[in-house]
Specification:
The structure holds two protein chains of two kinds. By secondary structure, chain A is an alpha/beta fold. In chain A, 29% of the residues lie in helices and 31% in strands. In chain A, the strands form two sheets. A four-stranded mixed beta sheet of chain A has the order 1-4-3-2, covered by helices on one side. Chain A has a four-stranded mixed beta sheet with strand order 5-8-7-6, with helices on one face. The chains are: A alpha/beta, B alpha/beta.
Chain lengths: 166, 172
């Protein structure tokens, strides 16, 4: 694994070094190393899911389904895969156990990009969601909003929004 | 986090899961879950070339190695980057995820508590291409039983994060 990691690091460094020199779109086209083709072909089913682990499984289920309004795409004992109604994304979580400990909150987070931050905040508050920071404009008059909340297991959810976005 | 809030979430889940137990028919399952949640309140931007819906972010100690792995071996596009941060996306905008470099306020995500699962229709070809690029598999994707079209395999990123490859070669 070490040689493999070394190889990956060299590849990453080459790209990062190029990034440091990029000042314009032209630079980007010229300097950004060409990436190989993504070899995976997705079907019409779900495409990918990121899975994490929680101690309080039921609380996480209730939060995402009954407060956030996500749908269960699949579930079994102590596992659930969630999806947005429009199938824009999928993610999953398991109940933690001795082999797979709970994902530490400071090591993992979710970031939503939305175009209705004001209505969203109102709806979630009415459902009982508690915000750490309510989404608000980053400066006076800005259409760009930022805020955050946490799942019952302490996973950070950042809400970014732009009310001018189509 | 207020305990009452957590308790409320737990109770809501329990009600539904108790009712859902025993549903075996797929259509019934879909109908049940379509009715359960309240309306999803988020409106996503339309132009995914310039934006994204949800990105899930994790933290790594060897940032450059993880970056090189996804950008150069997996061939995932770099959607955005900054010092110690990168967001990736698949060419068709099906997948978004991000990594950031361990720092004073965050520690690397322990490998055993996070994994990525890709679900594909070309497991044989994808495995071949990734091997040619130097990707090391823990278990190469192969049929779960003789003659099966359903494949499973897995590999790890340089930071040890498990990447599972699931595929069904009969899938359209």
């Amino acid at each position: 694994m070490s040689e493999f990691a070394d190889k990956c690091r060299e590849l990453g460094k080459a790209r990062w070094d190029a990034a440091a020199k990029i000042q314009s779109r032209e630079d980007y086209e010229k300097l950004w190393p060409k990436a190989p083709k993504f070899p995976i072909e997705f079907g019409k089913c779900w495409t990918h899911t990121v899975e994490y682990y929680v101690d309080d499984f039921l609380a996480e289920v209730g939060f995402f389904i009954d407060m956030m309004g996500l749908e269960a795409n699949a579930y079994q004992d102590e596992y659930v895969m969630l999806k947005s109604p429009g199938n824009e994304f999928y993610f999953s979580f398991w109940k933690a156990d001795e082999n797979a400990p709970a994902t530490l909150p400071k090591t993992f987070r979710m970031l939503f990009m939305v175009k209705n931050p004001v209505e969203l905040t109102k709806t979630l508050k009415e459902r009982g969601v508690e915000f750490i920071e309510e989404p608000k404009p980053v400066q006076e008059g800005s259409t760009w909003y930022q805020g955050k909340l946490q799942t019952p297991n302490g996973i950070a959810i950042h809400i970014w929004g732009d009310t001018s976005m189509e | 986090m207020i305990e009452e809030y957590i308790k409320k979430c737990r109770e809501l889940a329990k009600q539904h899961l108790d009712r859902a137990d025993g549903i075996e028919d797929d259509d019934e399952f879909d109908r049940f879950w379509e009715k359960v949640p309240p309306p999803f309140p988020i409106e996503f931007p339309k132009n995914k070339d310039n934006c994204w819906d949800l990105t899930i972010e994790y933290c790594v100690s060897d940032f450059l190695a993880e970056f090189g792995f996804f950008a150069f071996l997996m061939g995932i596009d770099v959607k955005g980057y900054d010092k110690g941060y990168a967001m990736f996306k698949s060419p068709g905008n099906d997948v978004f995820f991000s990594i950031w470099e361990e720092n004073k306020s965050s520690t690397a995500t322990p490998p055993d508590c996070l994994r990525l699962v890709f679900w594909m229709k070309n497991p044989v070809e994808a495995t071949k291409v990734l091997k040619e690029r130097g990707v090391i598999f823990d278990v190469e994707p192969k049929p779960v039983a003789e003659g099966a079209t359903f494949f499973q395999g897995h590999l790890r990123t340089p930071n040890g994060i498990l990447v599972q490859l699931w595929g069904d070669s009969s899938m359209k």
